[in-house]
Amino acid sequence: MTDRNHITAALRSAFPLTIPIMAGFIFLGIAYGIYMNSLGFHPIYPILMSLVIYSGSMEFLAATLLLATFNPLYALVLTIMVNARHIFYGISMLEKYKGMGKKKFYLIYGLSDEAFSINSTADIPRHIDRGWFMFFVTMLNHGYWVVGSIIGAYFGAFIPFNTEGLEFVLTALFVVILMDNWMKEKNHRSAGIGLCCSVICLVIFGGDLFIIPTMFAILAVLTILRKPHEKVEVSTV
Amino acid sequence: MTMSVTQQVITIAMVVLGTMLTRFLPFILFPAGKTTPDYIRYLGRVLPTAVLGLLVIYCLKDVTFLSGTYGIPEMVGVASVVLIHFWKKNMLLSIASGTVVYMVMIQVVF
């Protein structure tokens, strides 16, 4: 009974943080379901693909892959390039995901942009179980995405109001979380580095190619700055 | 469609494999049971905020500033989020407000 209350408390704590993602994901999931329908796929395709791929941009691309010539190696390489930024999520979560037991595998599996942004920055109350909290953030996000795809696949044509622009909710989420961290931190260097490297690489390489150069640029700058950073940290302690 | 069902399944499996590779790789290279190198732990501390910056720019990467809407809906939307969050410090309120402002601009104004 204590254990169950424990888990319920974590769920209640995690849910509010995922509400913006619920809005964004259900909308995008619906858009994805509609898109797959328009390409002639049976509804079971978007539902299963949302369940197992769980990478929004890659699922849209997978649809075009399925309509093209069979080329599994290309599919693999394209996926790795499109999702390369997730490697940074993993590095960031190495310490936080320690001691999670079997839940860790699902946490890694579901480490999307949104799960990363919440789990890496949330101030989890002391009485809340960290493992279950992050598990529910991940699971709720995944669930919203699948539910959205189901709605889109079966009922997309009947949505009564204009949802154009709703996808902005996810951009707003990242801005808010970035702001929270900015106000929390004394040192704004990391955020500045992330923003500047991204803008510069976006201008140079364009929207389709800038992610990987940005990752290398961020790594390079953070590495160069490491020693002064470390010294500052040591002297602070 | 030119693919058989088997080929479709293989293609989807490749996409799953690629996605999971990017997510699991750090955890495979630096397992929990061993001491993580200092450099990686340093990255673990400083990367999150840098990556959040990357994500914001990633979300705005398709904005065109030299034609169409000139990026005005996006900039006004982001500005709304920043101002309301700075003023009210309420996550849901600032996200909802910014999104509504953006939707109104995209659907009505432009």
From TrEMBL, chain A:
Keywords: Cell membrane, Membrane, Transmembrane, Transmembrane helix, Transport. It comes from the Bacteria. InterPro entries: Brnchd-chn_aa_trnsp_permease. The keyword Transport applies. The chain crosses the membrane at residues 14-35, 132-159, 165-183, 195-225. It is a multi-pass membrane protein. Belongs to the AzlC family. This is AzlC family ABC transporter permease. It comes from Gracilibacillus salinarum.
TrEMBL record, chain B:
InterPro entries: Brnchd-chn_aa_trnsp_AzlD. Keywords: Membrane, Transmembrane, Transmembrane helix. Pfam families: AzlD. It comes from the Bacteria. The chain crosses the membrane at residues 12-30, 42-58, 64-84, 91-109. The keyword Cytoplasm does not apply. This is Branched-chain amino acid transporter permease. It comes from Gracilibacillus salinarum.
